[in-house]
Design a protein that fits this description.
Elements lengths: L4 H13 L4 E5 L2 E5 L4 E4 L6 E3 L6 E6 L3 E9 L4 H17 L2
Antiparallel strand pairs: 1-2, 2-3, 4-5, 5-6
Length: 97
């Protein structure tokens, strides 16, 4: 009996569950985990958070007009996205004093 590709697809899909997008704020800075990578940006380079009009994801604003898309906060989440970004700004204010 031959194994189907369904098992391989399920395994790949299961692996992606562990790579869920996430935003974490802590004493060391802002950690953004998107689909394939996770990076921490220290507070001294974080310039803020934004949700530009028409953007699919919130942005972590960095120096020289650079940004990182925050896949964990998506436009399609509506009011939850607004609340999440507001909370991120509140926490950032505490750490950036």
């Amino acid at each position: 009996m031959r194994a189907g590709n369904g098992g391989l697809a399920a395994l790949a899909g299961g692996a992606l569950l562990f790579a869920r997008p996430r935003l974490r704020l802590g004493p060391d800075g802002v950690t953004v985990r998107n689909l394939l990578n996770e990076n921490t940006y220290p507070w001294d380079i974080v310039e803020g958070f934004s949700f530009p009009e028409g953007a699919q994801f919130a942005h972590l604003e960095l120096p020289r007009d650079e940004f990182v898309a925050i896949w964990a906060i998506q436009a399609r989440d509506g009011e939850l996205a607004v609340q999440s970004l507001d909370r991120a700004r509140e926490v950032a204010a505490v750490y950036q004093r």
